[in-house]
Amino acid sequence: MRKTKWVAAAAGVVLLVAGCGSNDGSDQGGSGGRKGGSSSSSETGGGAEAGGTELTADAVRTEIETAATGAGFEHAAKGENVPENLKACMVSWTPDAQKAADPKKSAADTVAALGKGGWKTEKTTEQSGSTITGLSKGTWKLQASDHSAGMLKLVMFVATNNTPACEALFKADLEKNKKS
């Protein structure tokens, strides 16, 4: 039951992230009308449209972890149970927000560090003390969620690769879990 709830929540995040700042996946909306991931081709893992190599899930995980730990977060001991068949297409990194001196500042600093690493901010939404920022790099979409203003100290970074192959895997996983 717990796994089913996590998968349902992850699927919701995937769908939200996949649509964040996107016009049918073209990413031509937003400021400047530039495609996501069109940063310099000399950047390591700069994305296929930049002439670089495609980012891997491991590279995305490393970028998130480096930015988050540099901003004062420690990795939570539990929380990232990405299904095995989605591990090449999805990354979940959850810090232990309770241990951070100022989780809201650490979340903002993590997003800023990711921006310096080539991630483009697509959209930021603030409501009731929560901040959700959508970022993109190459074919990857990242949802940085900070819900640390109240008693619940929850911060999450969930990235999804929006290639057609990964989108097919997400849809198949969602259908499989609907039937469970």
Automatic annotation (TrEMBL):
PROSITE patterns: PROKAR_LIPOPROTEIN (PS51257). Residues 27-36 have a biased composition (Gly residues). Residues 24-55 are annotated as: Disordered. This is Lipoprotein.
